[in-house]
Specification:
The complex is a heterodimer of chains A (640) and B (592). Chain A is α/β, with parallel strands linked by helices and 640 residues long. Chain A has helices spanning 13-30, 32-70, 75-124, 127-132, 135-150, 156-176, 178-225, 227-232, 236-288, 294-308, 312-335, 411-418, 443-447, 462-467, 474-483, 487-492, 510-522, 540-553, 566-570, 589-595, 597-603, 605-620, 626-631, and strands at residues 356-366, 384-395, 400-404, 426-431, 434-435, 448-451, 528-532, 558-562, 574-579, 582-587. Chain B is an alpha/beta fold and 592 residues long. Chain B: Its main location: membrane.
Chain lengths: 640, 592
């Protein structure tokens, strides 16, 4: 299960600190202004915190002790207390505001920047890359991992301010008394050391918890995606068990994280406290020896107590580091993903039907994946599956070619190759003499439209789904919907073509979605139109109307259509019969009917079936064969 | 049929309901709090040590007394260590109970998600729905890990610090309280603002995830139409909206935090002012006065931590609300559970009695369906796209419930049949069957976990699919890829069909289940199913009328009503009828 997760970054501390430094450097480079302001604010806060202790020590020595000893206090003395403390408090608060607002801006700006960059990669990388990565994982990359990577900038500015605070604080101690300073020199490095140990213990555990969070999320997404199946098969309990198993692993991992934190937090808290006690003990001895005053002991003890809490911010930074590393690594994997899908700079002609040619193309799928159902299986092989094998096509401009073949013959893969959704492993596809990889970015969709078997609709209006943002007028949209036989149901929608279709067109039926997808292709007046069984969810009468409409319009279009139906094949000038990834035969329908048995079996299956039934029925009910028999006459030998 | 957002719950109600849903959270909470008290007691040791050092050590009658102070400090250090041990135990117990509770919450939420009808599931953005059992719970977990403990300790520390202040000087304690009281009101205002701001942030996250998911799920369409730029713009808009909302929330949170910081500083000043006056009147020793400054720190730090973490709490509560909202959304299609009945095995009789159905807020799609299907009958439902055929199938599997009228199986109202019984007896094969990213064998076993490899092979053979299986590189062990995308759409349908067949139902519902399969294979499957389902009732929804030709009974649905009923041979002769028209069109397609 964990095998498919990215390699766990359990590198030694030195390595992870170095990589952490890289994240921090990247952050500063991308958001220099806001992070600089945050650090300056934080430094101000650090200095002012030390000065609070100093002012208190100073006031104790010069105002409070004399007043208590004199048993009276003057207005001047009270004013001194008021304004000296007011100033340090005000500056301290300003420092905090600067730090937090600026750090927040930097953090959210970084998130937004990286979300844009990651999704830009999703849009740029080839489809083959998408096939290799579960969508749940990609969603989590763009969401949770971005946040995890930059979360380190939430505590970091504070920690940098605390560094300033420590330097100034130690300076205060040294100028006050060497022995007290010695306590500080012991305590604060010890805190650092403890924090380092803490982080090295924490890293692998935090990583595992984060990985399991992603796994839980993937299982949930997949299972809900399969919601209808789960219901239809009554598998809710089993799915819940599957989810619960992962959730329980996550729970155990999170508790492990808690155990480590629970061990180190109290230690980190106790060290400065014991330091304070040591200051009091050592300080009393120094007062007894006449080296310092009581006020100075109070000042240093106070300093220890105000430093104790902020110093923990180092722990927060170090605690966040492993998760940031994992998040950042995952982002880097997306951002540096290879699988270039290069574009050339050539343009395709803009008018007239396209001349599309495939020369000896071969394509295989990598059979990878995960055992997401988690049933015990033997070692499952993982290799390549040859889907299209050495196929050559030449689609004459303006012609209509039917691509016919049994289920799993590689028809869809071939259509994907023709519109360059994927590039062939070997061979070349070209349009009007230009090899597809040489066409400039965006050039192919201007000439070519594919209507896939399974349609994808955007969470947009019907119109938006047809135009996809191109400047087509309402009239053109109506026209395209009419060709796709979609006018009827679209008009019945609450807001007509302006109705939003919901996420992935959830509010529409399969056939309705297919018709909108058809309109999407039609409105572009493509020079090459590829229909991959694009009417599978549409009933015959509607389909016939659509095909007729298409034929009327497709004078300037070369058409490649995956089809089983005679009526569709009848529209084609030639037929290609594909079987197991190879072209078994090609020619006109009549030719193939005559010489290709596989083809004949396939396309006449329904007719033969119907005829056989009629024959059986006729045997059973002699004398009742007239009308029905006539209506089906000729089906046995379909000829044009 | 929208899922509740949980917004209607107050914070208090959310916590109460949350604790009720996750009983682990309450378990052993008394001991944990007792340990937490011990660990917070450790924090007031420092002010006491300061007071003792000043009054009994440095300002001792006979001059400074280092020996006494050293002894005192060693004893205090021992106390600090004990408090640390208690803190460790608190941590561990809290993590155990909270993570246990959250795991329960997650699982309950997930289970309920599956209980919601397809109607509800489809009305929501699934990504956002799933987020409620993933990221929302993660949020609560993060809160517990980072802030929850701090918050608990802060509250206890406030109590303990107050007690110590009262011992030293009730008037000065009153001063501290009076200083912090206004803060409580200010913070409440801020809290409201921050809470609302985070609600907006979460909505923006949902929009953003939906937009991003299009770039992932719609990858093929985006490339085929070259709409990368447009998709990028759509994503950027939501990313920017989220950024703005998050920054807005952050600024409000900073306001709340710095208000606490400011009040804390001012309190130190006021305590020093009034404390000095009190000390000059002998109402307070110097040591006690200085100890007070340390106590104010003890007081301000938790208030700051509390305000800080109250923001996190708001966040976590918002997440909690959404999970609870999900869990408390009544399942509109409910399993009758123990009150329900089980159906005995054997071929099923189906009755529709005045059945109407309309989507909530939408138009009615079925207008009074009356239909009787006898046991062992093979029925084909035909009609134009959008005529309501699929709705009939969904009602029969209770993916949705009729808005009026009754659906009966073996004479029993379908709503009274226990899900466990219904699901094992009625199986629907939809047009787009979902495959899990696993091997073919694992997918086939989805409905029949105990089936052996031999049984899987047998089923494939019986359905006449061995030739197809032989084309797969690794047979049953072939991986189907994410959502089965390594297979073609037609192959996915074959898998879905075999999977349903393995589940061995008494009523098999096929909703365009072979629409993407080639004709020869389809005819072969149909033949196979005819013999295999001879002892069962089967209903097929199809637009390839070869299915109708083979059926005992053809039901023609048009615009939400049954317009024709009878065997193919009769219906096809009714000149001018819907069926005759459909069939003519179909026949033309086959013979052109």
């Amino acid at each position: 299960m964990m095998g498919r997760m990215p390699p766990t970054p359990s590198a030694p501390t030195g390595g992870s600190l170095r990589r952490g430094a890289r994240i921090i450097a990247t952050g500063f480079r991308r958001q220099p202004r806001w992070l600089a302001i945050a650090v300056i604010g934080s430094a101000l806060y650090g200095v002012m915190t030390v000065y609070t202790a100093r002012v208190i020590g100073h006031l104790t020595a010069t105002v409070v002790t004399p007043a208590v000893n004199a048993r009276r206090v003057t207005d001047d003395q009270l004013w001194t207390i008021a304004w000296e403390l007011s100033i340090v408090v005000a500056l301290n608060v300003i420092g905090v505001i600067l730090r937090r607002v600026a750090a927040g801006l930097a953090f959210f700006n970084l998130n937004a920047t990286y979300r844009r960059e990651v999704t830009r990669q999703y849009l740029r990388l080839p489809l083959a890359w998408h096939h290799r990565h579960p969508s749940g994982q990609l969603l989590s990359n763009a969401n949770a991992d971005v946040e995890a990577a930059w979360n380190i900038f939430q505590p970091l500015p504070m920690a940098l301010g605390v560094l300033v605070m420590l330097v100034v604080g130690l300076w205060e101690m040294f100028t006050t008394d060497l022995w007290l300073a010695l306590v500080g020199v012991l305590v604060f490095p010890l805190l650092f050391a403890v924090n380092l140990v803490f982080q090295s213990r924490m890293a692998p555990r935090a990583t595992r918890a984060q990985e399991l969070r992603a796994v839980v999320s993937e299982v949930a997404h997949e299972s809900i995606e399969a919601g209808m199946l789960v219901k239809a098969m009554g598998r809710e309990e089993r799915e819940t068990e599957r989810f619960a198993a992962r959730t329980n692993e996550l729970r155990a991992a999170a508790i492990e994280v808690g155990r480590v934190r629970g061990t180190f937090d109290p230690i980190v808290e106790a060290i400065p406290t014991i330091g304070t006690l040591a200051v009091l003990a050592v300080g009393t001895a120094q007062v007894a020896a006449g080296r310092i005053t009581a006020a100075q002991v109070v000042q240093i003890a106070y300093l220890f107590s105000v430093l104790a809490f902020p110093v923990r911010s180092f722990g927060w930074v170090l605690g966040q580091l492993p998760q940031s590393l994992v998040g950042f690594d995952r982002l880097q994997r997306v951002l540096t993903a290879r699988g270039e899908f290069g574009y050339g700079n050539r343009s395709l002609p803009t008018a007239g039907p396209a001349h599309a040619v495939a020369e000896r193309v071969t394509f295989s799928y990598a059979l990878t994946g995960q055992d997401s159902l988690g049933y015990a299986e033997a070692e499952t092989p993982s290799e390549h599956f040859l889907a299209v094998d050495d196929v050559s096509l030449d689609l004459t401009p303006g012609s209509t070619t039917a691509l016919v073949g049994p289920t799993g013959a590689g028809k869809s893969t071939l259509t994907d190759l023709m519109v360059r959704l994927v590039d062939p492993d070997a061979g070349e596809v070209s349009i009007d003499g230009t090899a597809l990889p040489q066409v400039r970015r965006g050039g192919i969709p201007q000439s070519v439209a594919l209507v896939p078997q399974q349609t994808f609709l955007f969470d947009d209006t019907v119109e938006g789904n047809v135009t996809l943002g191109e400047p087509h007028g309402a009239e053109q949209v109506r026209d395209a919907l009419a060709v796709a036989q979609a006018t009827g149901f679209v008009d019945a929608l609450p807001e007509g073509a302006q109705t939003r279709v919901g996420e992935r067109g959830a509010s529409l039926s399969g056939g309705q979605r297919q018709r909108i997808a058809l309109a999407r292709a039609v409105i572009r007046r493509p020079r090459l139109l590829v229909l991959d069984d694009a009417t599978s969810a549409i009933d015959p009468a509607v389909e016939t109307a659509i095909l007729t409409g298409l034929r009327e319009r497709s004078a300037g279009t070369t058409v490649l259509v995956v089809a089983y139906r005679m009526s569709t094949i009848a529209l084609a000038d030639s037929v290609i019969f594909l079987d197991r990834g190879r072209i078994a035969d090609r020619g006109t329908h009549a030719e193939l009917m005559q010489r290709c048995e596989g083809y004949r079996t396939l396309v006449t299956a329904y007719a033969r079936e119907a005829a056989e039934r009629e024959a059986i029925a006729a045997d059973e009910e002699p004398g009742d064969q007239g009308a029905v028999g006539d209506s089906l006459a000729g089906e046995e030998e379909p000829a044009r | 049929m929208s899922v509740r957002t949980g917004q209607e719950l107050s914070t208090w109600q959310t916590l109460r309901r949350g604790f009720a849903l996750s009983p682990e959270l309450r378990r052993g909470v008394g001991v944990t709090i007792a340990l937490a008290v011990v660990s917070t007691l450790g924090r007031i040791l420092v002010p006491i040590a300061v007071q003792q050092t000043i009054d009994r050590g440095i300002l001792a009658a006979g001059g400074p007394d280092p020996r006494l102070v050293t002894t005192l400090m060693l004893v205090t250090a021992l106390g600090v260590v004990l408090a640390g041990c208690a803190a460790y135990l608190v941590n561990l117990r809290l993590f155990r109970s909270s993570e246990g509770g959250l795991a329960t919450l997650r699982i309950t939420g997930f289970r309920h998600l599956h209980d919601l009808s397809m109607l509800t599931q489809n009305a929501e953005r699934r990504g956002a729905l799933v987020a409620r059992v993933t990221t929302d719970v993660d949020q609560i977990s993060q809160f517990v890990q980072f802030s929850g403990l701090m918050l608990l300790m802060a509250v206890l520390q406030l109590l303990v610090a107050s007690a110590l202040m009262l011992v030293y000087s009730p008037p000065l304690a009153l001063v501290v309280w009076l200083c912090f009281l206004p803060l409580a009101f200010v913070l409440r205002t801020f809290q409201g603002m921050v809470g609302r701001a985070y609600t907006v942030v979460r909505e923006r996250v949902g929009d953003m995830l939906a937009a991003i998911s299009e770039s992932v799920v719609g990858a093929a369409t985006i490339r085929a139409y070259g709409v990368q730029d447009r998709t990028a713009e759509r994503i950027d808009r939501t990313v920017e909206a989220h950024r703005r909302a998050a920054v807005g929330a952050q600024i409000r949170a900073v306001g709340a935090f710095t208000a606490g910081q400011f009040v804390a500083g001012m309190t130190t000043m006021i305590v020093l002012l009034i404390g000095t006056v009190l000390a000059t009147h002998g109402r307070l020793t110097l040591g006690e006065l200085l100890a007070f400054l340390f106590i104010v720190n003890l007081f301000t730090q938790p208030v700051q931590t509390a305000t800080e973490n109250l923001n996190e709490l708001q966040n976590a509560v918002a997440g909690w609300r959404r999970v609870i909202g999900l869990i408390d959304t009544p399942a509109d299609v409910r399993d009758p559970g123990d009150e329900g009945v089980d159906l005995p095995r054997g071929p099923i009789t189906v009755d529709f009695d005045g059945v109407r159905f309309g989507y909530p807020g939408g138009v009615e799609v079925l207008h009074g369906i009356d239909l009787h299907i006898g046991p062992r009958q093979r029925v084909a439902i035909v009609g134009e796209t959008g005529s309501g055929k699929t709705t009939l199938a969904k009602l029969l599997t209770r993916l949705m419930d009729a808005s009026d009228g009754e659906v009966r199986l073996d004479g029993v109202d379908i709503r009274r049949i226990r899900f466990s019984s219904l699901r094992s007896r009625v199986v629907l094969v939809p047009q787009e069957g979902f495959l899990f990213d696993d091997t073919l064998a694992a997918n086939l076993r989805f409905g029949a976990p105990e089936a052996t490899d031999d049984e899987l092979h047998l089923a494939i053979t019986e359905l006449g699919l061995d030739a197809w299986l032989a084309t797969l590189p690794h047979g049953l062990q072939t991986r189907v890829g994410q959502r089965g995308e390594s297979l073609s759409a037609g192959e996915r349908q074959l898998v879905a069909l075999a999977r349903a067949y393995l589940a061995d139902p008494d009523l098999l519902l096929l909703d365009e289940a072979t629409s993407a399969v080639d004709p020869a294979t389809e005819v072969r499957i149909q033949r196979a199913l005819e013999s295999l389902t001879s002892g069962r009732t089967s209903i097929a929804i199809a637009h390839r009328l070869s299915t109708a030709e083979a059926a005992d009974l053809v039901v023609v649905v048009d615009r939400g009503q049954i317009v024709q009923l009878g065997p193919h041979r009769e219906l096809v002769q009714a000149t001018g009828s819907v069926y005759a028209r459909l069939h003519a069109s179909w026949a033309t397609q086959q013979t052109h």
